[in-house]
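Deliverable D4.2, example record:
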Amino acid sequence: MTSKTVLAAVIASSMQLCSGFMQTPSQFLATPSSTLLYSSMFDQEVNDMFQRYDTDGNGQIDKEEFRAVVKKMKSSSRRREIISVAAATFGSLFVASGSDTFQYAQKKLRKGYLEEFAEAAQNELFPTAMLSDDMDKAVAKVLYRRGFTPENTLFGHSVCSDEVNNRKEQLIPLMTNRWGEGFTLGGLGGLPFAGKSGFGAYLHHVPDSGKLLVVFAPHVGIDDIGRVGSLQRDGQAKTSTACGAAIGAYKELQKTKKTASDPLLVFGQDNPREFDPQLRDIVNLLAPRLDGIQESSDSIAFVTYQMYGVIRELITACITETPDLFDSASEVAVLGGIMINRRKGGDFFQPLSFEVSKKGDKPVDLFEEAFGSRPDLLPVLGSRDAMTRASIY
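Output generated by the structure prediction step:
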């Protein structure tokens, strides 16, 4: 067997991990012409990779050079690198199909590279969280049945301005791509700092007799050892906080003795900062909600759920205190939850509320239709009072 044949076998075997690609909606391999194209692409990829790893140029892949091939495959642990190695021969063709291919492969391959402790923490504290792509599709399926379309719907979102919430595989970019446009209502922590004026501007941009779709959520990271509120960001060796604004507000409240020192807090490093108006608002709104945090199973998860409650109340106020709401919009859908940032294994969304409203009608709860049973969060938050303060019913 020649060195090129060995290398081709290595590529092909890695692609078998990704067999789901062969079933993509485009049915890329369904025709003789596409099969020929695939074969040509595969041969070219083998040649390119052979030249790349045949470092001494002798036309053979020796043991050390072969080691480099294997090392590359094993070390490609970042979410897109794993998929690109497994599907190298698909190259630019699948890059063109973009997010759909990545999301499909992400689900097929995630068991092979997810972080065990992060997964366990997420399952305990955010028990019915869904991959962002699954969430996008579940919401769309329900709303399409109610007549929401990209043509008649204006999407708006109140999430934290942190860049991790704007990666292509995250919920907001996915939904913006589906619905066509996205009006930004949120600032630090996900609070709708655009206020009533911003919401009014959003409302008056809706298509004639159209519909509004509002998504709101705080966000939280989970790192590879399962620490909630921590995230290793791309390009950084150390972990940082996520959501930095919510955790910064919590630390400020501890420092000023407005809440008891919490033995569950996992962040011991100093985090001095000058609080700007948005952070001052977060501190003031969060302060009365932290009673009982010692009874929770995780302090940062507790804070995150309380941030959800803050945002939900503010979004509800924007909607109910806009008197001309249904003069411009025929129907309003509101989805609320928590965005969960992960370094590996995909980003998730824990749904907590989903309802639609029309003029003169009571809101219709769509949660179970879209997502199934509600999660039991009493073990996480520790008391019914804490769940009520978090607006979790």
